[in-house]
Design a protein that fits this description.
This protein is an alpha+beta fold and 126 residues long. It is 41% helix and 29% strand. The protein has 2 domains: 43 residues; 65 residues, Nuclear Transport Factor 2, Chain: A (Roll). Strand 3 and strand 4 form a beta hairpin. The longest helix has 42 residues.
């Protein structure tokens, strides 16, 4: 009797495992599709655009934020559902990147540091 119950339990276990595996196989495709959609949104579609395609209010805002800024490159991307322009240029010999919303609000200004390999800060120089 004990062996019959053991065999019955084993058969139920195997049957349940077989059903479980097929359910996993069907459900495994859904998270992959969801992850692909999340990954596509996280890339945010950054694209280089010609300066003549940058709205005038965006260019004016960047140039007002950094007097003398000469724009050289532009990118358009979407961050959290908002269109943002990233403008690169130079002023007084320094390189800058300015992020401006489509509404013309300056979101961020980055000054590029050309002295990343400054020998004065390296203690191992002999």
């Amino acid at each position: 009797m004990k062996s019959a119950l053991w065999i019955l339990g084993l058969l139920i276990g195997v049957a349940a495992t077989g059903c479980y595996d097929s359910a996993i196989a069907v459900d495994d495709t859904r998270p992959v599709v969801a992850m692909a959609a999340v990954d596509a949104d996280s890339d945010d579609g950054e694209e280089k655009i010609p300066l003549d395609q940058v709205p005038a209010n965006v260019m004016s805002a960047a140039q007002a934020a950094i007097p003398g800024l000469v724009l050289e490159e532009a990118e358009r991307e979407t961050e959290d559902g908002t269109v943002v322009y990233s403008l690169q240029g130079t002023a007084d010999g320094e390189e800058y990147e300015v992020e401006v919303s489509a509404a013309g609000k300056v979101l961020e200004i980055e000054k590029e540091d050309d002295d990343e390999d400054d020998d004065n800060d390296d203690e191992d120089d002999d």
